[in-house]
Amino acid sequence: MTGISATPAVHGHGLATGEPVVRARSLVKRFGDITAVDGVDFTIRSGEAFGFLGRNGAGKTSTMRMIGCVSPPSDGRLTVLGMDPVREGASVRARLGVCPQEDNLDLELTARQNLTTYARYFRITRAEARRRADDLLRFVQLDDRAASKVEPLSGGMKRRLTIARALINDPEIVLLDEPTTGLDPQARHLVWERLFQLKQRGITLVLTTHYMEEAEQLCDRLVIMDGGRIVAQDAPRALIDAHCTKEVVELRFAAEDHESCADKLVGIGSHVEVLPDRLLLYTDDGDAIVPTVYERGLRPSGVLVRRSGLEDVFLHLTGRTLVEA
Amino acid sequence: MAHPSVAVLEYHLAGYRRVWLSTVASSLAMPILFFIGMGLAVGSFVDRGGALPVPYLQYIAPGLIAFAGLQIAVGEGGFPVLTNFKWQKVYDSMAAAPLRVGDMILGRLGYIAIRVMVAAIAFLVVMLAFGTVGSVLAVVTPVVVALVGVASAAPMFALAASVNSANAMAVISRIGVLPMMLFSGVFFPVEQLPAFVRPVAYVLPLWNGVELCRATTLAMTTTWPAFVHVAVLVAWAAGGFWLAWSRFRKRLGS
Ligand SMILES: Nc1ncnc2c1ncn2[C@@H]1O[C@H](COP(=O)(O)OP(=O)(O)O)[C@@H](O)[C@H]1O
Ligand SMILES: [Mg+2]
């Protein structure tokens, strides 16, 4: 398949990098009384990696499913590859790759059969389907499991196979809904490495994730969703610069009451966030203010100075941590 | 390039390929057991009365071949379809591809037609061995049985797309299949039924299939012209397809 085995960094789809490929305006999704997506605006451009960040229930999957043309919008406007996802859904889907939040592989078939049978839905010939399946199994490092049934494969292997399946039609846009959630760090690393390679080949990636460091590294731009709305969108670095100080001092206290500790910290750094298990003290120079903490009579059991990241942006904008502690 | 429904058919055949031998084995065992137990044993009583135009074994054989088609179709059109919606999420994966709901339904109906036809061929071999085939027209029986299968599977799809629990599925299948087996002229002519039950048999796919199978395997004349029986089966298939189509769209389109 051209996009996978050819030399990287070549865009094989005739779309200039930077062209809008997904455009949402006041997009709404309702399920009965529940408003899962509450009027969002975003534009995804060709060749970029675009992330949706948010807690469970924020509306990420609902948004992804509308983009994937399997769930009709309740209101607002959405175009994908310049087409209407409801009227021209099949034509859009022919050019998308989808890795859903939950794997929906056929557990009884072999890894390879999962790819070859799926390829046929895209009108790919049998011979070409076999060729692409073998290429993709190599790409996700499952070539040695090609002939084994899917059922006994590990979670990480199933996830990689689902990603391989999403690439079978050489898609222009790949939608990945929590591609690494639930995987152990090693499996996660392999998946992210492969996503980096796809990005380098000019494939547009649209993904949701819980993993901040990875989102920071992979996503060119991202939106933060909360309660069905977009609360911020920009490049990861720009979001951090706009909403946070450069550094964070994490303070842990053995037994003391966090609220009263926070009171004693007033005036140090730019502001303090109180979490169930720790206090976060925002400042541009962490090492410089740690002595002040001790001067005020506080005796933290743990002190950690780190650079601020997306997790802090999220906390600042929504008042809650991204992943439940 | 092949129609997308053919790709769905291929997918189902890929799964069938792993199990087809064991399904053929049971398609051979079922008639052998029924022929010995019912055909020969019960038949030795029935045939004393001489009420049927042919020996009892010959009478029930075409009924049972049609019933076998119904049974497979209900099995393959019910629970696995629910599984494909709810647990395995096969239909979600298909919906993400450039397939339409009609392709998904047609592809699986095609698979069931093939699956039923293979079983009917195995069944026919047993009928030949027991000497219950009296017409060369018998060669088209597998096609007739496949039509019975499609006529029964299509409405089952609609049902499977509408329920949410394996239990509901099992209860409804059993409630549907048993009376059909008893009241569709498999074991005795429907004329023996109370008059008010008879019209029910006339509209059921199984009775129409049984009539056609008696015509093809024994050259018996059908109650109505053959094309009417075929038309009833086609109506079930078409009506079932339409119902399934709207239920699938509803379930996948949230
Ligand atoms: N098919 C559905 N029917 C009813 N409610 C739904 C459905 N899908 C999602 N929701 C609700 O919509 C909200 C957003 O869900 P979702 O888009 O899955 O969020 P996320 O992917 O960010 O966790 C949640 O409150 C969820 O319960
Ligand atoms: Mg989700």
From TrEMBL, chain A:
Keywords, alphabetical: Antibiotic resistance, ATP-binding, Nucleotide-binding, Transport
Domain ABC transporter: 22-252
Keyword Metal-binding: no
Compartments (UniProt record): Cell membrane
Any one Gene Ontology molecular-function term assigned to this protein's record: ATP binding
Alphabetical list of SMART domains matching this protein: AAA (SM00382)
Presence of the UniProt keyword Endoplasmic reticulum in the record: no
Membrane topology listed for this record: Peripheral membrane protein
InterPro entries: AAA+_ATPase, ABC_transporter-like_ATP-bd, ABC_transporter-like_CS, ABC_transporter_ATP-binding
Main location: membrane
Family from the record: Belongs to the ABC transporter superfamily.
Name of the protein this chain belongs to: Nod factor export ATP-binding protein I
Organism: Kibdelosporangium persicum
Organism ancestry: Bacteria, Bacillati, Actinomycetota, Actinomycetes, Pseudonocardiales
From TrEMBL, chain B:
Family (UniProt): Belongs to the ABC-2 integral membrane protein family.
Keywords for the protein's UniProt record, in alphabetical order: Antibiotic resistance, Cell membrane, Membrane, Transmembrane, Transmembrane helix, Transport
Span of domain ABC transmembrane type-2: 22-251
Superkingdom to which the source organism belongs: Bacteria
Organism this protein belongs to: Kibdelosporangium persicum
Protein name: Transport permease protein
PANTHER family: NODULATION PROTEIN J
Main subcellular location of this protein, as a coarse class: membrane
InterPro entries, A to Z: ABC2_TM, ABC2_TM_bact-type, ABC_2_transport, Nod_factor_ABC_transporter
UniProt keyword Transmembrane, yes or no: yes
Protein location: Cell membrane; Membrane
Topology of the protein relative to the lipid bilayer: Multi-pass membrane protein
RNA-binding listed as a keyword: no
Pfam families named among the record's database cross-references: ABC2_membrane (PF01061)
Bilayer-crossing regions: 19-44, 56-79, 109-130, 136-159, 171-190, 226-245
